[in-house]
């Protein structure tokens, strides 16, 4: 009887990650922050989440071309704050140097 009727949801499933990141970004964008420092931190967190989501998409496509970029705080910051050029730089570093 243990565990019957309960869904097995892993926090590391791609769908769960996308839903959680999307929900957090939506919450930050809808509610906003009235105080400028909090707004600045919120903006930075949104950029980092967008960078992590971008890396996730690149890794999903990269499985077809046999490359993988680790998703961690540093790579998420690079791709989030630098955008597409930052992601291109991470791909170039992965392919040429590593």
UniProtKB/TrEMBL annotation:
Iron as a keyword? Answer: no
Keywords, in A-Z order: Membrane, Transmembrane, Transmembrane helix
Q: Where are the transmembrane segments?
A: 15-33, 45-65, 71-93
**Keyword Membrane on entry:** yes
> At the top level of its lineage, which domain of life is listed?
Bacteria
Protein's name according to its UniProt entry: Inhibitor of the pro-sigma K processing machinery
């Amino acid at each position: 009887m243990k565990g019957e009727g309960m869904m097995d949801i892993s926090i590391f499933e791609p769908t769960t990650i996308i839903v959680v990141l999307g929900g957090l970004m939506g919450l930050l964008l809808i509610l906003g922050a009235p105080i400028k420092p909090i707004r600045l931190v919120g903006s930075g967190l949104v950029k980092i989440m967008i960078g992590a989501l971008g890396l996730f998409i690149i890794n999903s496509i990269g499985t077809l071309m046999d490359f993988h970029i680790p998703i961690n705080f540093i790579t998420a910051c690079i791709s989030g704050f630098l955008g597409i050029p930052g992601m291109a730089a991470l791909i170039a570093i992965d392919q040429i140097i590593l």
